[in-house]
Write a structure and sequence with these properties.
By secondary structure, this protein is mainly alpha-helical. 79% of the residues lie in helices and 0% in strands. It folds into two domains: 1-121, RNA polymerase sigma factor, region 2, helix turn helix motif (Rna Polymerase Sigma Factor, Chain: A, Orthogonal Bundle); 124-201, Winged helix-like DNA-binding domain superfamily/Winged helix DNA-binding domain (Arc Repressor Mutant, subunit A).
Length: 201
């Protein structure tokens, strides 16, 4: 699991980033990029999630000086991500035409924005299929916690919900996931039997 105790708090990194420390923003982007991608994926689907998350992080960087409470960076970024995801379809072509120089600089300088993400973490096709059958609120926290190794406190902060809610969703989500895995394995057994019967005829 990701270390949290030794890490500087978000607000320290936010202030440093506002003062021009790209490394501080890189650390923030690394902390919440997985959450941004997962949140975007729930709205725009898998293919566009990376673009939306990258867009949200770039927008957050540019808007950092306007943040009123640096300690609330995570829910602020969460809101930006959901907004971008909801508006992405309409603005996609305009965004491609209007890519500004600052974005290009940030993309080359900020390591966390340039790494491929979903391909690595969703290699397990069976788990991905099972998660598709779990309601989105539960699936999202399960993916963030178990696939992306995000601490529960950061998930709660990003989603803007109490820690107790995240703990409940993880607990309930694991039960729902188990049910989905059982359903999938039963359907595989049935389809296997059917194939076997057909071959026997």
């Amino acid at each position: 699991m990701a270390k949290e105790r030794d890490d500087p708090p978000d607000e320290v990194l936010v202030v440093a980033a506002i003062l021009g420390d790209l490394e501080a923003f890189n650390e923030l982007a690394g902390r919440y990029r997985a959450a941004a991608v997962r949140t975007a994926q729930a709205v725009v689907g898998r293919d566009m999630a990376e673009d939306v998350a990258q867009d949200a992080l770039l927008l957050a960087f540019k808007a950092l000086p306007s943040i009123e409470q640096p300690s609330r960076f995570a829910p602020w970024l969460g809101a930006i991500t959901r907004n971008r995801a909801l508006r992405f379809g309409k603005q996609e072509s305009a965004r491609d035409k209007g890519r500004v120089e600052l974005d290009e600089v940030l993309l080359s300088e900020i390591d966390a924005l340039s790494r491929p993400f979903l391909e690595e973490t969703e290699a397990n096709e069976e788990l991905r299929l099972a998660l598709e059958g779990v309601p989105e609120d539960y699936a999202l926290v399960l993916k963030m916690h178990f696939l992306d190794e995000m601490p529960l406190k950061r998930i709660a902060a990003f989603l803007g919900v109490p820690l107790s809610t995240v703990k409940w969703r993880v607990h309930k989500g694991k039960q729902l996931l188990r049910e989905q895995v059982e359903l999938l394995s039963k359907s595989e057994v049935h389809s296997g039997k059917r194939t076997g019967n057909n071959q026997a005829r």
